[in-house]
Amino acid sequence: MTTLSEKHDVANYAPQPGGARKLLDSLFSISQRGSTLGREVRGGLVTFFTMAYIVILNPLIIGGFSPEAAPVDVAGNWLPAAQVGAMTSLTAAVMTILFGLIANLPFALAAGLGMNSFLAVSVVQEVTWPEAMGLVVINGVLIVLFGMTGIRTAIFRAIPKDLKAAITVGIGLFITFIGFVDSGFVTRTEAGPPVQLGDGGSIVSIPTMIFVLGLLIMGGLVARGVQGGILIGIVISTVLAVIAEQVFKIGPNSDTNPHGWHLNMPVLQGNIVSLPDLSLAGEFDLFGSFSRIGVLAATMLVFTLVFTNFFDAMGTMTGLAKNAGLASKDGTFPRLKAAFVIEGLGAVAGGAGSSSSNTVYVDSAAGIGEGARTGLASVITGLLFLGSMFFTPLTSVVPMEVAAAALVLVGTMMCAQIREINFKRFSSAMPAFLTLITMPLTYSIANGIGAGFIAWVVVNTAAGRHKKVHPLMWIVAAGFLVYFARGPLTLLMG
User: Fold this and answer.
1) Are 489 and 300 contacting, i.e. CB atoms less than 8 angstroms apart?
2) Are residues 69 and 105 in the same domain?
3) pTM
4) Gyration radius (Cα) of the chain, Å
5) Residue 288 covered by a domain
6) What contacts 256, CB < 8 A, 6 or more positions away?
């Protein structure tokens, strides 16, 4: 998608003299993709500030500051939050820079939220943390092999264009819903409907008001074609949040303070600079889980990890590439195979560093919305992640509510791809609709893709269009049936 600011940038872009600028332009094909150095830098900054929350959140999900406040494995082990935070930053930095240099795409990688929650809630109830991270490494190795052998690319090419468009729209709805929830704009109800607006149908908290105000500021700037509109909006909203916290002493969200800030408070806490603790590097046990819980049970866990990682990332990259205008008519994008391989290496690196599997982040859409089109933006984001190892207090100043506003804005942009779906043919419309609606309602990109794949195979076959169904779609749909039934299957095996 091309915004007004992007058109302005392209129309007024002229390569500037200078060795460094010329080298960057040649290395990343900046002008060839209709971008500018300024847009790439801004895009990298926006992506980082939109997803910097993972440096704070990941240690809280899989780690803690004491055994009482951390997920404890079957052997009583737990992961110290400070060490998890350092490895989260380091792994995200290395993999994002590598992705930018090799795949040359504006996608950033970090510890996947679905994967880390699965590890903390389910996996470590059966195995130790080192053994769980060993399973993550095996998952990553398999994904790398799928990427190197072309299996992942073949499956990607087999996906019909209607489903690829639906994946993009679904991700747009998904990140919008994430933004609504993370900002407190949408909350759970104790009884009745599963969700509601704010608290009792009304917006009553200052942080949520900051979210709404930030969304309107960013939307207005982008609508006017202001270059750097999203980044400017993030800065303005963060300043307003800092002022609000200083004046009203809002505090963090908790059971006793339900109207506080979600996750990050817009204040500078502790020392600005701190040395990272990288003690968790290499602390994984590759095959220990197989002897602890048996080959079948461990294999089912690996299957679940691979399926989630494989299709979550594939769906995310599909949506991001289309949103960046880098996808061709069949949905493929530049350096597709390299992107799949590097993403798989992210899972290996995440497991080896005990920060959980690293995958492409849908939050990268914020940087794309700012104009990023090349891997230079990813390099910028990666360098900022590297710096966050030493400046964690600074990365936590941008509150979740401000980052959420950027996600909703980009979700709006991604939903424009709905025009690519053929709703006149029901055999295309139903699978596409299930794809795009299942993602936000089940909080999973992989679930949406699975629902769409299964529906596409069944509905098109019933409509007499079985010749239009690629054989790989049948295989993957069967795999998703197993994936959705993994709970009962695990019980049967046990």
Assistant:
1) yes
2) yes
3) 0.79
4) 22
5) yes
6) none
Q: Do residue 345 and residue 452 come from a single domain?
A: no
CB within 8 Å of 106: residues ≥ 6 apart = 40, 43, 44, 47, 100, 320, 324, 364, 367, 368, 372, 373, 374, 375, 376, 377, 378
Output the average pLDDT for the chain. Answer: 88
**293 and 278 share one domain:** yes
Question: Nearest 5°: phi and psi at 14?
Answer: -140, 125
Q: Do 411 and 433 belong to one domain? A: no
If asked whether residues 208 and 261 sit together in one domain, one would say yes
pLDDT at 5: 45
Q: Residue 18: what pLDDT? A: 64
| pLDDT (tens digit per residue) in 429-475 | 999 999 999 999 998 888 898 999 999 999 999 999 888 899 999 99
The answer to whether residue 4 scores a pLDDT higher than 70 is no
Confidence of residue 24 (pLDDT cuts 50, 70, 90): very high
As a whole number of angstroms, the distance between CA 490 and CA 473 comes to: 25
What secondary structure letter does DSSP report for 194? S
Residue 12 falls within a domain, yes or no? Answer: no
Domain count, the chain: 2
* Residue 287: domain span: 31-417
CA 290-344-97 angle, to 5 degrees, is 135
What is the per-residue pLDDT for 154?
A: 92
Domain boundary among 417, 436, 462: 417
The answer to whether residues 255 and 387 belong to one domain is yes
User: Which residue type does 398 have?
Assistant: V
Q: How many CB atoms lie within 10 A of CB 203?
A: 15
